[in-house]
Amino acid sequence: MRQRDPLETPDQDTLLRVTGLHKSFGDHAVLRGIDLTLRPGEILGVLGPNGAGKTTLINIVATLLRPDAGTVEVAGADVLADPKVVRRAIGVTGQYAALDEKLTGRENLVLFGSLLGLPGSAARERAGELLGAFDLAEAADRRVESYSGGMRRRIDLAVSVVVEPRLLILDEPTTGLDPRSRRMLWQSVAELRARGIGVLLTTQYLEEADQLADRIAVIDHGVVIQEGTAADLKSRIGDTVCSIVPADPDRLDEVARLLADLHATVEADAGRVVVPAPDGPRTLAEAMARTERGGVELSDITLRRPSLDEVFLALTESSLIGVTDTASARDAAQGAVR
Amino acid sequence: MSTPAALRPAPPRLARQVRLHAGRQATRLLADRAALIGVIFAPVLYFLGFYLPLQGAMRAQGINYAQYIGPALVAQSCIFTAMASASALAEDAKAGLLRRVASMPVSRWGPLLGRLLVDVACGWIGAATAVGIAALVGFRFATVAGVLGFALVVAAFTAVLGVLFVAVALRAADPSAAAEALLVPQLLMLMLSTAFIPADGFPAWLRPLVLWQPVSPVLDALRGFATGAPGAAALVTASVWCVVLGGLGAVLCLRAPRAVA
Amino acid sequence: MTGSALEAAGLARGSLLQARRVLRGARRTPALVAQSLLFPALLLVLFQLVLSRSLAAFAPGRDAGELAALIVLVATVFGALVSGGALFDEREAGLLARFATMPAHPGSVLLGRVLAEVVRVLFSAVILLLVGLLFGMTVHAGPLGVLAFLAVLAGVAATVGVAVSTLAVTGATRSMLNLLAPVFLMLMFFNSGFAPLESFPAVLRPVVAYLPFTAGVDTLLWCLRGGALGFRSPLVLVGWCAAALAVSGWLWSTRAAGRISGERR
Question: Which ipTM did the prediction report?
Answer without folding.
Answer: 0.72
